[in-house]
Amino acid sequence: MKKTFVLAFEIVFGTTYMRPIVQNSQTILINVNKNLKTSIQKSTVPLKNGQNLIIFPEGARTRDRKLLEFKKFFAILAVELDVPIVPVVVDGTFEAMPAGKLFPKPASVSIKYLKPIYPKGLNYDELTAKVKEAICKELIK
Question: Where in the chain does DSSP place strands (E)?
Fold first, then answer.
């Protein structure tokens, strides 16, 4: 876990209430609406150092359990730095903590790591689609 960082939106995790969590974890706060270039630069640091970076490609929590549109941010990093993406299916979190709730409730949550997807020869859109497709296939099993 010492080699793993998590991307989080500054607007949510930069608040007074969330700041203690961020300060005591390996969280990288970004604001792609305010300064995309700085957000990308901050996000590349762990990857350039051979560390892991967790990115939630939807950038938000679902309101109906269906996958949201995937943002290209992760694909940009993967293509530009030539690093593989390991898609992860996290299932059951909607039941554990639906959007709008402050505290989770007991629920079964499963995590499954899928095969790495390498960016070589893919553009941002193709890579984004390929990762989403891999996750979708796993969810319908």
Answer: 4-9, 27-30, 52-54, 88-91, 110-113
Q: What is the pLDDT of residues 66-93, one digit of tens each?
A: 899 999 999 999 999 999 999 999 999 9
Whole-number Å distance between alpha carbons of 34 and 115: 34
pLDDT for 13 beyond 90: no
pTM (2 d.p.):
0.85
CA 72 to CA 70: how far, in whole Å?
Answer: 6
Give, as one character, the DSSP assignment of residue 131: H
Rounded mean pLDDT, 16-26: 83
21 alpha-carbon distance from chain centroid: 17
Cα 10 to Cα 70: distance, rounded to the nearest angstrom: 19
For residue 132 the two structure tokens come to 């989403």
Q: How far is CA 9 from CA 15, 30, 34, 134, in A?
A: 10, 5, 11, 25
| Three-class DSSP category at 134 | helix
